[in-house]
Structure formats: C-alpha cells, structure tokens
Task: inverse folding
C-alpha cells in the first residue's frame, strides 16, 4: 500500500508488504497502519529516505553474501594457518615455518628464527666493535671480533674498566645536568610570575611605587644580608673547569706511566747485558785460574813430603820463616775464597804447613802458598812444594791477575 501526504498529491514511499497491526509508532504508540497519515510528530522526509535506502542496502547485502560464498581458504602444511587460495603461492615464501639458509653463514633455519640467530649466534654476521662509541672503527665477523680483535688488536679493550667507569660517570653527570635544567626551568617560570606580579603592582601603585627598594647605608639599622649563594651558571662553569682539570691530570698521569714503563724496559735490558758480561767474566776468570794452576804445577820444586811433617820442622827451626825454598818476604796469610764445593774455611794446618789449598778450597781461583810471599790479588806464593792434608798444593812464582 502507498503512504500519501496530507494533500494527497503524491506518495512518499510504498510498503512492499502489509504493515502488521502489532507494529506501533515509537512516539505515540499507535498502530502503524492507521497512524501513518495522522501522526504530526513524525518526520516524513527521514522515513522516505529510510525507505529509499532499505532496498539498496538489501541489494548490497545480497552481493556481499554472494562474494563471500565464492571465497575459498586452504590450510598451510607448515604453519597450519588458513590462507586464501589466491595468496597461497606467495605465502610459501613468507611462511614462518619454512626453512631458509642464513644470508651470512648459510645455515638452514626456520624463517621465524632468523632474527634471533643473527642477533645472538651467527658466527659470520658483521658486528662493530663494542668500543665503537669510544673511537674504534673495527667491523667484522662475530668470531674474529671476539677471538682476534678484542684480545690482541683493540687498543680500548685494556681500558675497558676505566671506560666503563667514565661512561657511568658521564651518565650520572648527564642525569644531574637534566635535573638542574629542569630546576632552572621551574625557577625561570617562578621568576617570570614574580616579574609579572611586580609589574602589576607597579602599575597599580603608580607614582607611589618605590624606584629603589634597597635601604641606604646611612638609614639602615639592620645588619646587611649575607652574600647570595653562587648562581647555577657559575656552579656549572666551576664543574666544567674541574672536569677539564681532571682530564688534564689524567693525561699527565698516563704520560708519566708510559715514561716509567719505558725506563723499566731500559733497566731490564741493562740488567740482561750485565748478566751476559758477568758470564763472560766468569769464563775468563776460569781460564786464567786454569792457567795459574798449570804455571804453579810446572814451576814448583822441592822434596815431596807430608805437609804436617814439613810444617812441624819449620815451626821448630824457624817460626818466622818465609817459606821452604823460595819465600823472601814477611809472612802473609793467604786469602781465602769460598767455593761451592767447600763453603767453610780450610783447616789451619793445611794453610800453615802444607802447600796452597788448591781448587777445592779456592773455588777455581787459586790460593797463596802457606808461608810463601804474597804474589798478587789472587796469586800463588813462593812456598815449597808439598802435599796438604786434604788436597795437593804446588808452590811457585807469584802471578797477579
């Protein structure tokens, strides 16, 4: 049936079916079929537009349903996800469960694990040096970075602890600087509000506003206020100067440390040279002492008797004698030199009555005859030949080293 306007000139809209009697007007609760032309509160134009749009929306719904009915989905064999049939060929290249080789180490991994592999365990992925923020320009594979560069090549790795301490101190200073900037902003806002307040007071008081509110020295009876605390800018400048001073001190200490290291290296080199020279001197002294022993053995003379008997006879006849055969000077105690084989001094009778103590007592340097004349620093006296109680000693001419 057609719903017409009050002037019956034209129909506003047509119902496709008969309006049921149970349908009521939402405004006055009257039945819709008898009330369609009598309700004065109803917006007829809105109802007409709704009636015109309803068939169009219905047609659109039918088209959408038809389109939905034609869409087909398929399940991916790798990730068990429902994929549109049209997108299934492209999904194979982006499926998270599909295995792909790594772009750096060629390791075959699921596509979803590639990011974590590159971030944590890929041995061939190029990585910058951990000290890049301090100036290191190295970039290379992960294995070479941690096995070769950091232990042997990186100049910043030995200073790692110091650099971490400096970074931590820098972060603390940046935090303090940020807090101070925030505080300065708050103080500047308060200062602006105080200035606006003072400007309002000046305008309100007019000529009565004091030009200079500071009391003069002649009229003031109260003690003057203490000097104001240093401003924030001066504090920051002082901190900056202290930081510069610390940096220069640190550089000077580093320079001194390098100088001490170089001096230590020079001292070590000199000690090594001295040790080598001392070894050469020992070899030469050994050769000289062997030569002295040969000279003493070839130049000695006299009867071969026991040292004790010869010594006793000499003590009875001539206590202050200068020797058995060739002595000519005053008695002189032979110098004693300790050796590795005989670290204790030889017995007195061996020095008094026999020949020189020999190599066992002198340690390869030779000794003076028992009662012979002193012939040199490490020489052989002109004593008589004889056999000592512990080792043979041969008299002969004095030899000076």
Result:
């Amino acid at each position: 049936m057609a719903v017409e306007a009050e002037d019956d000139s034209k129909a506003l809209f047509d119902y496709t079916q008969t309006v049921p009697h149970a349908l009521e007007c939402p405004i006055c609760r009257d039945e819709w079929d008898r009330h369609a032309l009598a309700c004065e509160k109803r917006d007829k134009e809105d109802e007409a537009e709704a009636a015109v749009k309803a068939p169009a929306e219905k047609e659109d719904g039918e088209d959408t349903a038809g389109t939905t009915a034609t869409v087909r989905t398929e399940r991916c064999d790798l990730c068990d996800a429902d994929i549109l049939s049209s997108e299934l060929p492209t999904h194979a290249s982006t499926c998270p469960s599909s295995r792909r080789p790594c772009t750096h180490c060629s390791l075959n991994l699921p596509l979803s694990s590639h990011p974590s592999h590159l971030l944590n365990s890929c041995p061939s992925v190029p990585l910058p040096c951990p000290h890049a923020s301090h100036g290191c320009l190295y970039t290379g594979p992960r294995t070479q970075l941690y096995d070769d560069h950091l232990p042997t090549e990186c100049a910043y790795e030995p200073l790692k602890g110091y650099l971490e301490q400096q970074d931590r101190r820098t972060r603390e200073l940046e935090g303090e600087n940020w807090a101070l900037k925030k505080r300065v902003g708050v103080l500047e806002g308060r200062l602006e509000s105080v200035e606006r307040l003072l400007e309002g007071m000046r305008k309100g008081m007019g000529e009565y506003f004091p030009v200079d509110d500071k009391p003069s020295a002649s009229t003031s009876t109260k003690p003057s206020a203490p000097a104001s605390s240093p401003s924030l800018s001066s504090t920051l400048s002082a901190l900056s100067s202290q930081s510069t001073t610390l940096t220069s001190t640190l550089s000077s200490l580093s320079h001194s440390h390098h100088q001490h290291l170089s001096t230590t290296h020079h001292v070590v080199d000199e000690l090594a040279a001295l040790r080598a020279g001392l070894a050469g001197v020992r070899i030469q002294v050994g050769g000289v002492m062997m030569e002295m022993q040969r000279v003493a053995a070839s130049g000695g003379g006299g009867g071969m008797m026991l040292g004790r008997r010869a010594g006793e006879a000499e003590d009875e006849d001539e206590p202050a004698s200068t020797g058995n055969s060739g002595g000519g000077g005053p008695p002189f105690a032979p110098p004693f030199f300790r050796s590795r084989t005989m670290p204790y001094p030889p017995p007195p009778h061996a020095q008094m009555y026999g020949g020189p103590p020999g190599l066992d007592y002198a340690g390869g340097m030779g000794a003076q005859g028992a009662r012979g004349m002193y012939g040199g620093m490490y020489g052989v006296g002109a004593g008589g030949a004889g056999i000592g109680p512990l080792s043979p000693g041969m008299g002969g001419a004095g030899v000076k080293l």
Residues 2-69 form one domain.
